Amino acid sequence: MNITIRNIPDDVIDKIKTISKMEKRSLNNEILLVLERGVEDELKNSFNIKRNISRESQIEIWKKLSKQWKDDRTTEEIIEDIYESRTLGREVDL
Questions:
Q1: What is the DSSP string of 16-80?
Q2: CB-based contact 46:55 (threshold 8 Å)
């Protein structure tokens, strides 16, 4: 697919030209690489954005999840296992 991009600032083009010369790539290939990397970063960032939900919604989610937890251990045994799996030398208060 061919597209035309207009009004690219001169300083941006100059930077891309400099990089393309340093990396021994054509200007077209350098622009494609910059676009690909930029799109990848945007996708990663959009998935890592924390979703803000209300306190009430979070409590409701926890209540639903708590009813689904299946474990034969007692609460005390679970807590003991958590403490035992912690990195030594680190203080933990539950």
A1: HHHHHHHTT--HHHHHHHHHHHHHHHHHHHHHHPPPP--HHHHHHHHHHHHTT---SS-HHHHHH
A2: no
pTM of the model: 0.47
Radius of gyration of the chain from Cα atoms?
Answer: 26
Enumerate the domain spans of the chain: 10-48, 55-85
Residue type, 48: N
Q: State how far the Cα of 84 lies from the Cα of 92, in Å rounded to an integer.
A: 11
How far is Cα 35 from Cα 1, in angstroms, rounded to an integer?
A: 14
Dihedral, CA of residue 81, residue 87, residue 88 and residue 90, to nearest 10:
-110
- pLDDT band of residue 22 (cuts 50, 70, 90) is very high
